[in-house]
Amino acid sequence: MNKFLVPILCVVAAVGLVVSTWLVFYGSPLQYTIDGESGRLVGTSLFFNQKIFYFHVAHAFVLFAAVGVAGISSIFYLKNRNPKWDDIAAGTTDVAVAFGAAVLATGIIWAKAAWDVWWQWEPRLTMSLLLWLILVGYALVRKFAGPSADRVAAGMAIFGMFGVPFIYTMVGADSHPGSGKNGVVATLDPAMRPAMWITVATFMLWFVLLIIVRVQGTRAERELRELRERALDLGVLE
Amino acid sequence: MLGHAFRIAWKDLRIEVRSKEIFMTMAFFGALLVVIYSFAFPADAAAVRGSVPGILWVSLAFTGTIALGRAFDRERENDTMRALLLSPVPRLSVFIGKAIAMTVLILGVAVIVVPLLALWLNAPLFDYPLELAAIVATGALGIAVVGSVFAATLLKARSRDVLLPVVLYPILLPLFVAGTKGTAALVQVHPNLEIAHYWMSFLGIYDAAFLVLSLWIFESLVIE
User: Fold this and answer.
1) Residue A46 included in any domain
2) What ipTM was estimated for this complex?
3) Which terminus of chain A has a lower count of CB atoms within 10 Å, N or C?
């Protein structure tokens, strides 16, 4: 891999973070609606709390992407046993556990502001939680399963990925923020769109960057382990 | 291939019939769970209708995981898993055989747990016996299929007893939720067969999808 890739991505992600933060706070309107009859604020009347929406959605996109990346690279790993794919799956999951924690934390803050409870079993929050649990399980298996950890973890990533449609059907019956044509994303105020998509793109980039660094780390760890084993076999190391 | 699978399932079940180890301990464990839940949850009729689906599925989940762990431990102790994998049958037969045997075992536990729930908690579980049987059977099949894949993969892993539920429960969550909701639709005050059928077909599709996936992935997961 090109040695300039990581520094360049770092710079782009840093610029993107500044731009998207500026856009979120200054470049997008504060959306609220007032109910005509009661005169009360309804709908997305979250005032400043709605700013968390941009970061929440961006992290959620990343979380969903991570499950796919880990699942697909695990399939490749099981099919051709090239440890490269295992490194990618492991690195992605490591990073995605952190991003998933951010999704849940921002989701909890959002829920408190929007529905006045810290946790609502709202479909997408539920789905994020379930996907995050799969990723955490994956990380635990990798850490504690010993020699066969790679296979167990790969199986878990694949089964987890194929479980996503079931989780979606299971929780998707009565979605509150809405999905599809009437969803938050589709009915978003056009003025809010640039901020949202730039935030999403920035965090995707940031995610890719972290994965690259993390994969390099897991690869180095594996190579060191293999080298050590070879040295032990040859009797160079005690 | 199916013939070999049935032979392997029959071998497992015959060991079980002779030793009765897993079935006896699991059934007793399931009964104990029901007793604990009977004390843990309020016992008035309305509350029981609300809590009994959860009790049933949590009991199945717990007993199922422990049965899976023990059944595969048995193959590990004398290194007979290697013998099974080396035997001149397709590996898929080994998997199918194991899954069949596990389904029968989990169903056996369910046959003990469900009447006990009805007896001790006065739960109206037998109002729709066929529907309930279908939901429990599809659920047991799903647990057995996914469970067999991972119990076999974890066979040589460190701390496999702890890791089996760690791996299984996140993957089986849709199954448990569907089973609980389907059962709830049958035991609520006004049973809703339409919802029960919806979750039944959900379970059926879940089983089919994960069976295909397991058949596809088993050979590359269980290599030794």
Assistant:
1) yes
2) 0.87
3) C
